Amino acid sequence: MTRDEQKQLGLQVAAEVYKQMPVQPDSSPETQYIQALGKRLVNTIPADRSWPFQFHVIAQKEINAFALPGGPMFVNIGTITAASNEAELAGVMAHEMAHVYMQHSAKQQDKSSLLQGLAGLAAAAAGALGGAAGTAAQTGIQIGAGTLLLKYSRGDEAQADAVGAIILWKAGINPVALADFFQKLAAEGNSGPQFLSDHPNPGNRRTAIQAQIKDWPNQQYSSDSDEFASVRKHATGVQAYDAKEIAAGAKNGRWTAENKKNGVVFPDAPATAAAPAGAASMPAVSISAVQPSPNFQIADLGGLRIARPQNWEVIENRESSATIAPRAGVSGGAVAYGVVIRAQRAPAANMSASKLTEAVAQSLQSGDSNMKVVGQIQPLRVGGSSAGSVQLETVSPMAGADGKTQPE
Fold it and tell me: Is 111 helix (H, G, I), strand (E, B) or coil?
């Protein structure tokens, strides 16, 4: 992805976050503080190498923070209250900024490795979400279940720690505080398991950071501030929601309505952002342009071979996802006709095929308020393995012949 493409995608996904999660207004004490702390960190990065960072706060209880491609960053209320001091909170933010600086989410698309499995229901993902969310679903970014996840490798984590340490040091903050916060999460074993699973431990963070900074010039670090203490105290009284409540609110449109009512609107949604879920963003095409051929040929996806209609193409083939579709059935990030195959980590060990299918369906529904399950999950066998199948219904990203929205 180019630099401009990363900025565009980040803005589009950030606009989706504002629709699917309870975002605090910029006037809130928490957001004001996070923006000020963020600016302090951004000022350490040379302007010609920086990104247009912006900082927002989500009223969510769980510990999480994420930075999107191009710079939009979101910090949960739970992260503010979990930090013991300003240095720990700054450590989390610097770590996330480093992921943007190193362009880790963009580089995920360039990795080539074997597809490790099929997420059969994900065939509907790009088409159901459409536009920004559809593009996001294929670049390792998932909106759903009350959180937004960017999957990083241990190598990515080690780099983010190293770059984050430089940002903190230049800001006059002890870089070891970054490791302290991660260590605290691991020791407590609650509130932040998702954050830890998406940020795998690259090794002994504290030892690595101490070794990195041992020869750097000595300086008097700041570790806390009256501003942090005041905001942390205020944050404990903010109405915050857990992941299940946020997922339910995203599904029924609660956060879109409440954010709008409170004047919380994403400030930089690009003019080219995708239409909201449920809006037809693609013109109608003739059935002959998308109807699959009765003749099939084998598509080699690198570790996975699958028969595809002769007139359908492998549009995209990345590390953990592939799209097979007729050209006329795809536009931007939306897939109206076609199949999206994705590898997806199971939410828990030893889940049955039926439970896995149910979990994937719920994940898709959390990103599309129009989507509903039709009928029961049906068992089947795929390549000798147990599998599940279920029908989902939503609004197509492609308009009908009359130009109006149509179900799919």
Answer: coil
Do 260 and 122 contact (CB within 8 A), yes or no? no
Helix (H) or strand (E) holding 142: strand 141-144
- Listed by start position, the domains of the chain span 3-112+141-261
Cβ 166 vs Cβ 38: under 8 Å = no
Phi, psi of 143 (to 5 degrees): -100, 130
In sequence order, the β-bridge partners of residue 397 are: none
Read off the pTM.
0.59
CA distances from 72 to 154, 160, 280 (A): 23, 16, 27
What is the tens place of the pLDDT at every residue in 116-171? Answer: 222 322 222 233 334 444 444 444 444 443 344 456 677 778 888 888 889 999 99
DSSP 180-222: HHHHHHHHH-SS-HHHHHHS---S-HHHHHHHHHTTSPP---B
Nearest to 211 by CA among 165, 246, 167, 242: 165
- Check if the beta carbon of residue 274 is closer than 8 Å to that of residue 130: yes
